[in-house]
Amino acid sequence: MAILVTGGAGFIGSHTCVELLQSGEEVVIFDSFANSKPRAVELIEELSGKKVRLYHADLLDANEVERAFAENAIESVIHFAGLKAVGESVQKPLLYYHNNLTGTFHLIDAMQRHGVKRIVFSSSATVYGMPKEVPMREDFPTGQPENPYGRTKLMIEQILTDIQRADPTWSVVLLRYFNPIGAHKSGKIGEDPNGIPNNLMPYICQVAAGRLDHLNVFGNDYPTHDGTGVRDYIHVVDLARGHVKAIAKARSFQGTEIYNLGTGIGYSVLDVVHAFERASGVKIPYQIAPRRAGDIAECFADPAKAKRELGWTAQYGLDEMCADAWNFIQKNPNGL
Ligand code: UD1
Predict the structure, then answer these.
(1) CB of 214 shorter than 6 A to ligand 1
(2) Cα–Cα distance between 185 and 321 in angstroms, integer?
(3) Alpha carbon of 113 to those of 70, 83, 119, 170: distances in Å?
(4) Which atom in ligand 1 lies closest to the alpha carbon of residue 124?
(5) 149 is annotated as an active-site residue
(6) Ligand 1 neighbourhood includes 269 CB (under 6 angstroms)
(7) pLDDT digits (tens, 9 = 90+) for 112-148
(8) How many whole angstroms separate alpha carbon 125 and alpha carbon 131?
(9) What is the rounded distance in angstroms from the CA atom of residue 270 to the CA atom of residue 194?
(10) Which of 55, 128, 149, 316 is catalytic?
(11) pTM across the whole model
(12) Number of H helices, E strands in the chain
């Protein structure tokens, strides 16, 4: 029996596949390589010492989705695949709605045809919208995500919740990620975005590597300890291990459960810059720039529910996240 991992070659997907394989699971990867590379799949096999079956295909291609289920004994799905560039989603909303939602419909259709009723979904803290207070708990009402990307995450959460309500024998685990950064300890896999990065850590890495000139710090007038935005950064390997626990949970219950995956600690943009400088020994030049539209001042998790019910807590701190991100960039100056 295997776990189908959509988007398994991506940043979080690849680290999750390594952890799943190392814990003895069989893995089938379904990935279009829209924002990842086939090399990541070879590296997953190298790091785990196990083989995976790969479907190089898009979830928009319903026939290929069907084929992946028909050719393998799939027992659970972890659904990462989706477009995730916030700015692009504002420019091209239909692309995001079509890709992320239609892809998910094809996946659920095939699951229903093949009697697969367990799914772990890669959601985001973005579904909380503008939080009234921090730390954020799973029972907080979801808000209005600021952009189409975030809205697709919330919509898919709602769709899966409805599917489970209609057929109570489904097990749905919605994982709300905070800000995953870092890389595998080996430095072989890590975050490898196409083009100029949107997110903080990959941007800092490219400045450190000399590919970008300086970091723009989006706002220093937020009500935070140094005026810059505060986020809950989480090591991608910790996040990956959360998925192994989420699969165990999905096998043990029927219903829908939501878990925050974060450390519970908030760091500002400048905290991250300084931690990165300490870890790498490289100075990161930065300039204060205007606030980025849609950004919130502070966002960090209350991770108590994941600890209580999944037996999961993050192990790594910010220094290790920075050291591991830097190690990956040094070993892969031109990406994977
Ligand atoms: C972003 C997305 C969020 C998504 C998440 C995961 C936005 C508004 N939100 O979260 O929906 O789920 O990524 O990919 O894009 N920063 C700078 N300079 C930079 C880049 C970022 O100062 O060049 C600051 C931001 O203002 C923020 C912090 O760094 O305070 C983290 O930003 P980022 O890494 O983009 O993550 P989020 O915005 O939290």
Answers:
(1) no
(2) 10
(3) 10, 25, 15, 13
(4) 12
(5) yes
(6) yes
(7) 999 999 999 999 999 999 988 999 999 999 999 989 9
(8) 10
(9) 25
(10) 149
(11) 0.98
(12) 12, 14
